[in-house]
Amino acid sequence: MINKELENLIQNLINQLSTIQNNFDDYQNKHFEKRSSHFFCLELNGEAGELANLEKKEWKGKNIEFAKFEDEAADVFIALMNYCNAKQIKLEDALINKLKRIEKIRLENEEKGEKY
Ligand SMILES: [Mg+2]
Questions:
Q1: What is this structure's pTM?
Q2: 10 alpha carbon to ligand 1 midpoint, in Å?
Q3: Based on C-alpha coordinates, what's the Rg of the chain?
Q4: How many angstroms separate the alpha carbon of residue 46 from the centre of ligand 1?
Q5: Coil, strand, or helix at residue 66?
Q6: SS3 call for 49
């Protein structure tokens, strides 16, 4: 049994994510050097690390400009799109499958009175 929020999320993923991923592929292929999934995986983790560093600095009390978080989050998203395209992962399908598995576990935990 899928709740309304997850149903909406899945419906929007079906309608839009593969289009966005394909648009990234077209843009990347037309205007940038072709690179392997290995490269993009390292880039993805590098960008995630840059985002984590900002969070660490903020956590330690430093004032970080919000635009820097936005910029690094965008880098992570772009790197993820490029990684999935290089690896031929259809993120829409992978995400829907994963969300359904998470929801199944969440519901099982809920029945036992446990949090996910
Ligand atoms: Mg960056």
A1: 0.91
A2: 29
A3: 17
A4: 8
A5: helix
A6: helix
